[in-house]
Specification:
The structure is a single chain. This protein has 501 residues and is mainly α. It has four domains: 1-71 and 248-350, Rossmann fold (3-Layer(aba) Sandwich); 88-193, Glutamyl-tRNA Synthetase, domain 3, CATH 3.90.800; 352-394, no CATH class; 403-500, Orthogonal Bundle (Arc Repressor Mutant, subunit A), CATH 1.10.10.350. Helices cover 46% and strands 10% of the residues. The strands form six sheets. It has a three-stranded antiparallel beta sheet. A two-stranded parallel ribbon has the order 1-2. A hairpin with a 2-residue loop joins strand 11 (276-278) and strand 12 (281-283). Helix 1 packs across helix 11, helix 6 packs across helix 7 and helix 10 (293-302) crosses helix 12 (337-350). The protein starts with a strand and ends with a helix.
Length: 501
């Protein structure tokens, strides 16, 4: 039988890095086993539905090159792949459970449940709807059949609950943790169908996984507590459950708690694959921050996994071949943005300039293409090894777009040059007389002849052209700017020097 996996996000907001990691591990596991991976949108919770989030989920996964075999807009013989389009199926299956005595109607109002909860709290206990109190509550187990029929006929609001067997030891298995035992006496009779007729996550999830023939469920550790309920629903239908693998948590940089959007806001890093702009609140994604998809794939694979050497950049196929459940850790992994950036910098160093330009879509690149149409490759070749993110071109190359508007006095003090105006004027005279390609040799001859301090002189020229002391090789900068622009900037610097005297 073909192995089948699924990624089943809820469209309740943008796709977080934890969801991206879950999608990736599902994809790797499926392809390692020559299986299929399905995208299913679990959109039954209308109260939490966020407009645009399904589109964001699909576009985030597409950017990462995680491609599905079945799903919305893809199709497949086990569709539809949105739970909101499968409500008739859920109705059919819950009626089967009621008929077989594995589920029941509950007519308790919110006020009823609040009163019951208050009674338990007064006794120092915690209220939950289950085997110890269900017969004293308002449901089809405690009411007569005719009373139940009348309530349903009169459309009295109700839910449908799972009937959990008494004193049952629930043995569950997780591929990472082995056998896990749960005691049914502490479990609530979970709601399967809400009062609006919409299935809960638990019920729809199990029914869909069975009908879509999912062989292995890979999801986050936060769903581990739901495992006994899911096993009990499988048991109620007499279905064989799939294999389960619960991935370890992605922790915040301090290692204290699950990574959240707030951590990204607090520490200044993205937590989404691509940008999410909703209700005027903009949160940059990894794409907009300047990451390559394969760089993020390499980093995500390290969050709970040790499939490959972390010091190298690996391809998708490398990770598919190396994927092994035994190499997944049980403990949570701290999110390390600096490590993610380091991986991206290694990727940039390993690609050619043509590929670098294809990834960068910044305004800086567009302006440089307009200003230096025949030099764009040379420009990016100069700075490629200094870039950590594709977006770094904005700060590294901004000096090529506009000349310095000010010269920080604290930098000037470090490189103060005797007869500075005279020496910069001499540089202008030299660059006027010789081809730009000969400027370096002519300038070196002048420095040697005049016995000028080379270090501060070169720094002064750089400061005049760039407004800083860092950047590519000085003469590479001069070759790109060309004579006219260099002379203009040298003259601007002379005016600055005259203003100091």
């Amino acid at each position: 039988m073909m192995e089948r996996f699924r990624f089943a996000p809820s469209p309740t907001g943008p796709l977080h890095i934890g969801g991206l990691r879950t999608a990736l591990f599902n994809y790797l596991f499926a392809k390692k086993n020559k299986g299929k991976v399905i995208l299913r949108i679990e959109d039954t919770d209308k109260n939490r539905y966020v407009e645009g989030s399904e589109k964001h989920i699909i576009e985030s996964l597409k950017w990462l090159n995680i491609n599905f075999d079945e799903g919305p807009k893809i199709g497949g013989k086990y569709g539809p792949y949105r739970q909101s389009e499968r409500t008739d199926l859920y109705k059919k299956y819950v009626e089967k459970l009621i008929k077989e005595g594995r589920a029941y109607y509950a007519f308790d109002t919110n006020e009823d449940l609040i009163n019951e909860r208050r009674k338990e709290e007064e006794k120092g206990s915690v209220f939950f709807y289950g085997q110890h109190n269900r017969l004293s509550l308002k449901n089809s187990l405690s009411l007569t059949e005719s009373k139940v029929s009348n309530l349903i006929k009169n459309k009295v609001p109700h839910v449908i609950r799972l009937l959990i067997s008494t004193d049952k030891n629930i043995l569950c298995n997780d591929l990472l943790r082995g056998n896990i035992n749960f005691d049914s006496t502490v479990l609530e009779d979970k709601i399967l169908i809400k009062s609006d007729g919409i299935p809960t996550y638990h019920f729809a999830n199990v029914v869909d996984d069975h009908l879509m023939r999912i062989s292995t469920v890979v999801r986050g550790e936060e769903w581990l507590s739901s495992l006994p309920i899911h096993f009990l629903i499988y048991d109620a239908f007499n279905w064989t459950p799939p294999n389960f693998l619960h991935l370890p948590l992605i922790l915040n940089p301090k290692g204290k708690g699950k990574l959240s959007k707030r951590d990204g806001d607090r520490y200044g890093f993205p937590v989404f694959g691509i940008n999410w702009n909703k209700n005027l609140s903009q949160n940059n994604g990894f794409k907009e921050a300047g990451f390559a998809p394969i760089s993020l794939i390499n980093y995500l694979s390290q969050l709970g996994g040790s499939f490959k050497n972390h010091e190298e950049i690996h391809s998708f196929n490398d990770f598919i071949e190396a994927f092994d459940v035994k190499k997944i850790s049980k403990g949570g992994s701290k999110f390390d943005y600096e490590k993610a950036k380091w991986i991206n910098s290694k990727y940039i160093q390993n690609i050619n300039v043509k590929d670098l330009l294809s990834f960068s879509n910044s305004q800086t690149k567009q302006k440089l293409e307009s200003l230096y149409p025949h030099k764009i490759n040379d420009i990016y070749k100069l700075v490629k090894d200094r870039m950590v993110l594709f977006s770094d071109d904005e700060k590294i190359l901004s000096f090529l777009i506009s000349s310095p508007t000010n010269y920080p006095i604290e930098i000037y003090e470090k490189i103060r040059l005797e007869n500075a105006v005279e020496e910069i004027t001499s540089a202008i005279n030299i660059i006027n007389k010789v081809p730009i390609s000969s400027f370096k040799d002519s300038l070196m001859h002048y420095v040697k002849e005049r016995n000028i301090k080379l270090g501060n002189f070169m720094k002064s020229l750089r400061f005049a052209l760039v407004g800083d002391l860092t950047g590519p090789d000085l003469f590479d900068i001069i070759n790109i700017l060309d004579k006219k622009e260099c002379i203009k900037r040298f003259n601007n610097y002379i005016e600055f020097l005259k203003g100091l005297s």
